[in-house]
Request: fold
Amino acid sequence: MSAEERRTCVVAVAMSEFARGGYEGTSTESIAKGVGVSQPYLFRLFPNKRAIFLAAALRCIEMTRDTFVQAADGVPPGEVYEALAVAYMDLIADHELLMMQMQVQVAVFQAKQSGDEEFGKIIRRGWTDLYDTVCLLLGGDHETSTRFMASGMLINTMVALDYAPEDRLWGCMKFLPCGP
Amino acid sequence: MSAEERRTCVVAVAMSEFARGGYEGTSTESIAKGVGVSQPYLFRLFPNKRAIFLAAALRCIEMTRDTFVQAADGVPPGEVYEALAVAYMDLIADHELLMMQMQVQVAVFQAKQSGDEEFGKIIRRGWTDLYDTVCLLLGGDHETSTRFMASGMLINTMVALDYAPEDRLWGCMKFLPCGP
DNA sequence: CAAGAAAGTTAGTGACCAATCACTACCTGA
DNA sequence: TCAGGTAGTGATTGGTCACTAACTTTCTTG
Reply:
């Protein structure tokens, strides 16, 4: 397998592992085991652990964006919000991508605390791009777009906290407007 | 100093340290140093590291709830939403409590993955209580309450990602209704 | 087929970390 | 005054982790 293919494979496994354990809570050993290579070989493919995390973080944002773009493809304007909402729910159904998103959020803060401004800058670029994509798909309406993002963040929290689907707090979500 | 006073002190320091580094990224040594006691003594005050984190997490939720209750005290019904919003912004101004909140969210998921259901149960109880408190203060209106929480979660994300105050994405936040 | 590059491994290092143990210093009440 | 409880420490330990060095294997190509 070529180094480039291996790298792609590492990123996929890393996303899943980092989502589960966070940056500090995930060992490079566990990633290597998941990929099926020796742990030192990871450091041939990436300069250090942080670079693996960054690659996984970017892939996570990219996947979310792609999902939205595909979900809105060929959908009449009036039904795009609903389509995006459904697509997002599908995307985070297995909690992996969602948790990686949250891990990235805390990692940006931690990176900044330890003097690394670059990481945050790169992630913010990805997020702004994600917002712009959503906004474009929703016809450029910032109010609807922002409300969509806010609802998504609340859903993230409830999923992370593992509220049961039948919990009454989920019932409150129906009050959030699902269309513009 | 009595053990109980020490424990309170440990929780305060732990909140700050865990907010900065997360659960795995914070050593008991650094907490002990912050408190001004030896590291082994922490394990006299708490059974293990996880118990320290749990205590800090609960204190974090409690502080948020208390802030809301105090902010709404004596405020006419029509102005409570605004008062809560301002109080929350003040509360998270230094990012410490906010980051602890997010660390708790990812920690619940991680705890569950490693078979600890109890941690999540306790945290959810705190969160449900927090929501109920907000809902009560907002006159029992679930739509407004849920929208308030959703806005808070989006603000959390933007603060964690360290978006500059003048970033255009903050401008979008003004579209979120700040009153019922 | 020779030779070099690319893919991949084994062995190892220094640093760190949660938790334990055995100990000291101080206070309090009979 | 002395016995027992409480606050607190130094030393240590078994284990983990990111990362490196040096080596082997496999593929490609002139």
